[in-house]
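Q: Convert this sequence to structure tokens.
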Amino acid sequence: MSDELEKKGERIAKALARAGVGSRRDVERMIAEGRVSLDGKKLETPAVLVESLKGIMVDGEAIGDVADTKLWRMNKRRGTLTTHKDPEGRRTVFDQLPGHVGRVIAVGRLDMNTEGLLLLTNDGELARYLELPANELIRRYRVRVYGRVNEDELKKLADGVTIDGTHYGAIDAKLEREQLSNAWLTVAIREGKNREVRRVMEHLGLVVNRLIRTHYGPFTLGSLNDGAVAQVPEKQLYDVLGDFFTDVTQSVAAPEKKRDPSKWAKAKPPKKVRLGAKRKPRNRDDEDNRRANAKPGEKPLRRGGRKSESRLRAERAGTDARTARAGERPKTEKQRPNEGRPASSRPASRPPGANRPAGQGRPQKRGPKK
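A:
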């Protein structure tokens, strides 16, 4: 931690935002409402410098110890709000979180009827980094719209569009498929302004009836179930957000040592296998005994480069299995059922005009019942 921070301290709004209480504006609003206290005294202004989180309480609860930066992926359900408290008592995404997640804030917001990927973190500085339009993290959506889609108008969105005095940057929109009066689109935006996708679609004469966020920068929704939460592995977090952890400033709410590669999973060393090292030498005598003592119907043991059991039997009997005996018909044609049987054992043939006994006639084909 720098000497300047040790001497002067850090503004309490920034420290609480870094600790995951909320954004800096949220913390300033909490202080104005009298919800933040320091050493038992309610704060009236955010212009207070602190050197640690000790003694700071929000809504009567202590902030706790400094924690490592963590990030979670959540599949937000439709009909939930992205807020910590709702005056009307409606369901929020934070009501569904498991207890081990702790105090977190959302990266950006999804409106009530939008579903899909929502990022949660315990580090306000990371949330701010991911939200800044200057970082140009692409947000991808799957959009179902009602109306007739004009692909030429979708291509024009790549140059940006201005709606009611608000300019929206480049938007990559493509038609995925059409279903009667509905159509599915894929939309990619970089700024993430309030209700940006819905307003742009309304500008094109389309009504959005379903909106799903699938990507936020390098993070994807994947196969998360509705309402499920999964933590981003530490190694992946540092790999894809290396610039943030390199340039981030020190804070009283962030540990000095934030990266511990010793806890990461390490690749297993390659196995050194020598050819034939685990093979047992063949015992030809044992194989011959097994072949000789094979039970009737049992598949004989074969080994590469040696004759089959049937060929060995033919050679023992003094016959050649590859040629037919003299006067015998070749085996290429199928033998008739009565061929080779004595005449006395053949069934008597029926006269040509004799009727077949009942129940022994050929089955007749019957058509479908009318």
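Confidence is low (pLDDT under 50) at residues 1-6.
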